[in-house]
Structure formats: structure tokens, C-alpha cells
Amino acid sequence: MDDVIKLYNFLEKDLLDEIVSKGVRKKFAANKPLMREGQFISSFPLIIRGMIRITRTSNDGNELLLYYLQENEVCAMSLTCCMAHQKSNVMAVAEEETEALMLPVSLLDKWMCEYPSWRQFVMQTFQSRFRELIETIDSIAFLRLDERLVKFFTDRYQKLGNPTFFGTHQELAIQLNTSREVVSRLLKKLEKDGKIELSRNFIDFSGLV
Questions:
Q1: What share of the chain has pLDDT > 90, as a percent?
Q2: Annotated domain spans of the chain
């Protein structure tokens, strides 16, 4: 667990000792769900490496990307459900191969009371996620779909540092809550403008970043 201690060394030593002793280390393959909407949450992840996509899904299967999670981050939405003892209102999916330490939700209230560093970490998490949710709302309300597509790629690059996307046009359309035909048309235009390179189930968007 040395990597966990190094990543979260801003937390008190006693808290780190509890995290190491109570946490269960798990690996998740790319596109594997960690948490589904409508289920009760028994544990929450501290990310060690990789990235998790947090989304909402409509009744007809469309997906709305809320935010990404990486190292040194925890899911504010899942913490909210845990503390209120409610079912999950989001889905968490591994964007790439991800390793996380799964921690029992029963520890949340105890840690909030006992450890100032944990309380600060959680509050900073809420603040960051709230800011990202506002940006998501703004992009839906004020940006054209072609602008949202470019923002999707640039935001992804800021998180991953990798200007590529592995997946189908349909998967991209689901994340943008639109149709595959519209996404394919916009991608073709970006390719024509020299901003991206398209191949089967792969997009290189180096020209955008």
C-alpha cells in the first residue's frame, strides 16, 4: 500500500492507517461499471491509478457525462448518497483500466468527525465537482453541439494527457446525449478541417490540443 500512502499523504497518519487496513484494493477493466444508478452503495473508491467516468442515464439509454475522477479524487455524488443512506443517482464506469481502494461507507461519518484533513478533502471535492457540474450545465445550455464535441475532447486531454479516443461513434454520441448520425457528421467536418484523424473505433484529436 506504499503507493496509496504516497498519493494520499496529505491525510493524517492515523487516517492513512485506517484506509490501508480497511480498504480493499480492486482493478477494473476499461468500460467496467463500479457503481450503477439505483443501487445502494456499500463502498466508495479512492482512485490509485486510472480514470472513472461519472454519468447520468436517461430512460431511453442516453448518457450525460457529469465529470471524470482521477488520482487524489473521490466521487462527491456517491459520498452524498452514502451519507444520506440513499440509492446511487449516478453511474461510475472505468474510462480506462483503473485501480482503486474500495472503502466501507460506514466509515464516512466517523472520519468526518475525527479527521480534519478528511473533512477538508471531502469539502474540496464537493467544491470541485460543483464547479464541473456548472460547466456541464453551461455547455448544454449555451454551446452548440460542435462546440460541445470539441470541449469533450479538450477536457479529456486535460484529464488524461492523451489526445486519443478509443470507441465507436455511437458510444461518443451516448456521452454527448445526441445521435450517432450527428456525431459522425461533426467528426467528418473536423477531419476535413485537419483537426482530427479518424480510423475504426479510434480518434486522434491532436489537432485540437
A1: 41
A2: 1-140, 144-208
pLDDT tens string 125-175? 888 888 888 888 888 778 889 999 999 999 889 888 889 999 899 888 888
What count of other Cβ atoms lies within 10 Å of the Cβ of residue 100? 26
Helix ranges, the chain (H): 2-7, 13-22, 76-84, 107-114, 116-142, 145-160, 169-176, 180-192
Q: Which is nearest to 50 in space by CA: 97, 112, 113, 102?
A: 97
* CB proximity list for 24: less than 8 A, separation 6 or greater: 43, 101, 102, 103
Which one of 2.60.120.10, 1.10.3720.10, 3.40.350.10, 2.60.40.10 gives the CATH number of domain 1-140? 2.60.120.10
- Provide the 10 A C-beta neighbour count for residue 46: 22
Is the CA virtual torsion 127, 132, 168, 90 positive or negative? positive
Please give the Cα distance from 31 to 162 (Å, whole number).
17
Kindly report whether the global pTM for this prediction surpasses the value 0.85.
no
Q: Does domain 144-208 have CATH number 1.10.10.10?
A: yes
Taking only the tens place, the pLDDT of each residue in 55-66 is 888 777 677 888
| H and E: helices and strands count for the chain | 8, 10
Q: Which amino acid is at 2?
A: D
